[in-house]
Amino acid sequence: MATASLLALAAPPAPVVAPRAAAPAAPSASIVTAAPSKPLTDACPAQLAVKQAVSDTPAGWTPVNQQGSYPFQRVQFYPGPPADASLIVPTLEFKGQAGLHDGWDLPHREGGYWMTCSYGNTTATVARKLADDTDYCRADYDGRFQTLVVKHWSCGVKRTMAPPPWVRPRVGTKPPPRPGVKRVE
């Protein structure tokens, strides 16, 4: 007898499963929403390898094409592919001791939003489309440089993102009590 036949004889019989009744249809009034997409955080490549070439050499000059790796410097946001859209200006800007902080409120729009990662000493960038449910982005810039250099950035659904460390509690709210400290009156 062939090996396959022996294995089939040795296997336990498959259980008989009765067909399941179809689940009742959900009422049309109750809409189930998908979970928000995971926030995109510090996703720009730290370095970008770029090969720069002279496109139109002036008479009497010799082109010196360069190749190098350039450091990540900043993020920018667009209402569509960057080649077809204008840059979005931050809706919130806060300057603190640690540097500048920007926030972008992104109302829902058909087609969503795009972002670019820019790099120092080159005009080369990389771009990507953000998740369709992204409605907020923020960037924290390092205050040690004269030009804007991003330390951290993130984009996602605002209600699911942790508040940035530079946001102060609302006026009129008491800070939470410190654990282990009792007041004696």
Question: Please, could you describe this protein's structure?
Answer:
This protein has a domain at 39-51 and 66-160. The chain is built from one helix and nine strands; from the N terminus they run αβββββββββ. It has one helix at residues 3-10, and strands spanning 40-41, 47-52, 66-78, 92-96, 99-105, 114-119, 125-129, 136-141, 150-156. Strands 1-9-8-5-4 form a five-stranded antiparallel β-sheet, with no helix packed on it. A four-stranded antiparallel β-sheet has the order 2-3-6-7, with no helix packed on it. The chain is globular and about 80 Å long. 13% of the residues are buried.
Itemize the secondary structure elements and their pairings.
Layout: H1 3-10, E1 40-41, E2 47-52, E3 66-78, E4 92-96, E5 99-105, E6 114-119, E7 125-129, E8 136-141, E9 150-156
Q: In percent, how helical is the residue content? A: under 10%
Ranges where pLDDT stays below 50 over 5 or more residues in a row are: 1-32
Physical arrangement of strands within the biggest beta sheet = 1-9-8-5-4
Structural class: mainly beta
Mean pLDDT level: 79
Please give the largest β-sheet: 5 strands, antiparallel
Q: Alpha-carbon distance between the termini?
A: 92 Å
Give the strand tally.
9
Query: How many separate helices?
Result: 1
The ordered H/E elements are HEEEEEEEEE
The global form is globular
* Cα Rg: 28 Å
